[in-house]
Amino acid sequence: MLELRPNCECCDRDLPPASRAAMICTFECTFCADCAAGVLGGVCPNCGGELVRRPVRPAGKLARFPASTTRVLKPDGCAAVAPPAADPEERAA
Fold it and tell me: Cα separation of 53 and 56, whole Å?
């Protein structure tokens, strides 16, 4: 189950559970849409994975399955990362 982390790791912007501006990677590193698209170029600075919009948990499920309250923040903000190298199989397609 997703943690639904409460903030952007880069700029500390609040990202409540219903936010459509929350972006995550497969490890649930969490960023706001502005940081994800801007400085990060859609790539997680922690694992190099793709950043995609975090799904919204239905309000009725939040009482039983609450969002995380643990904030994760990079003390020096985020630096841009190089995009992952193209997969040779994708280039052949």
Answer: 9
* pLDDT tens readout for residues 18-33: 999 999 999 999 999 9
In this structure, which topology does domain 1-58 adopt according to CATH?
Herpes Virus-1 (3.30.40)
Q: State phi, psi for 92 to the nearest 5 degrees.
A: -75, -20
**Domains of the chain by residue range:** 1-58
Tell me the whole-structure pTM to 2 decimals: 0.81
- What is the spatial distance between Cα 73 and Cα 56, in angstroms, rounded to a whole number? 21
- Residue 90 pLDDT class (50, 70, 90 cuts): low
